[in-house]
Amino acid sequence: MPTSSRARAKRRIAALEEELESMRQERGGKKRKTTYYVAQGRAIRRMVCLYTSLEDLVTENDRRYEYSEDESTVEYVADFPFMQDRLQRGYIEFARTLPWLHTKLGSLDHEESEDMLKKLKKGADAARGDDTSSLKELVAMWVNQDFRPSPLVKPNDKHLRGFASDICGKLLCPAEWDWNSDHVKAGIRDRTSDYIVSENSWPMFTYENYTINRDNLEEGFLKSKLLVLAFKAIFTSPSSAKEVDGDGDGADIIENNRRARRKSDQTKVKTCVRFALSSVTSWRTVDGDFDYEAFWNNIVDFFEDTPGPVARRRMDKLLEWWTRKIFGTNHRADLTPEVVSHMSVNTLSQQRRAMEDAIFDSD
Q1: Which of 59, 173, 220, 300 is the most exposed place for a label (fewest CB within 10 A)?
Q2: How far does the chain reach from its first CA to its final CA, in angstroms?
Q3: What is the reported pLDDT for 253?
Q4: Please, which residues have CB within 8 angstroms of residue 102's CB and are 6 or more apart in sequence?
Q5: Are 295 and 268 in contact (CB under 8 A)?
Q6: Which of 14-23, 45-54, 103-112, 290-299 has the lowest mean pLDDT?
Q7: In Å, how far from its chain's centre is CA 285?
C-alpha cells in the first residue's frame, strides 16, 4: 500500500536515531570496560611482575595445563625448566591479584583476550611510571636527610646521580667492593674490566645500615632503611614514609599482613630504588652492564629458590620483619575469652543487665 514520503522519512529518521543511540551505548560500554581494565592493571607491576609480559604468563599456564592433561606424562611437574616455573608462579600471582582474571580469560576469544591484556598492560606501565617518578624525588630527599652530602642530591635532576655522586655511588656499590677505596671508586667510574657493575652483585643500599658481613652476606640483607621508606611510599602512602624507626602503627593489620608478605611487592621496590639512585633518566631494562630484569629475577629467586627448609624459615622471618616494619604488630591471639571478660565492653554489658534485673526484682 502506498505511503507518503514524509511518513517514510520520519520512520527512517527514527530508525537511524535508534541505531545511533545503540552505537553510543556500545561505545560507552567499551570506554567503561577500558577504564576498568586500565585501573585494574595498575596493580600488576607492583604485585605480580615488573617486566615479564602478561601474554607470556598466560601462555605458560595454558601450556602447562595442556601438558598436565596428557595422560602419557607422569611426574610432569619435575620436567619444567626453572624459567617456566618462574612464569607459572607469576601467573598464579597474577590470578591471585586479579581474582576475576582466570575465569574471564576462559570466556573470551583470542582477540578479546589480547585486547584485555593490552589494556591491563597500559595500566600496569602507567603505575610503574608514576612510582618511578615519585621515587626519583623522594629518594633524593631521604638521601639528603640521612647523609647530608655536599653537594646535595637534586630531586629533579638525575644527571649527577649514579657513580658520579659520591653518596649515590656508595649506595650503588657492589657489596664485594669497598667504595671508600680510591682504586675501587676510580675503577667503577672508568668502567674498567676489573670493576664491572652488574646484576650479579648486591648493591650496598640493600643492606641494613648499608654495611655487610663478608662472612655472612645474608645478614642484614634487604633490611635497609631506604627500602622500607620506598615500600611505604609506594604501598601505603608517601606521608607514612616519614618514620621507619621501630615497628609500624598496626593499621589494617590483618589485610596488610597478607599484602606485605607478597615477595613481588618488595622486589619491585628494590628495583625502583636502584633506578632512582642511578643517573638513568628514563626507564629501561639495561643500564650499562646492569640488567634490571635479571636483578629483579635474582631477588625473586632469593625468596623462592631456597636451598632447603632452614633457609625457607629465614625467608619467612624476613617477611615477618617486613610486616612488622611496615604495618606493626597486633596481639589479637592473646585476647582470650578470659581476658575479654574483664574488659569494659563486657563489664558495661554485665552492669546494664544487673541494673535491669534489680529494677525487675524491686517490682
Answers
A1: 59
A2: 92
A3: 39
A4: 95
A5: no
A6: 14-23
A7: 17
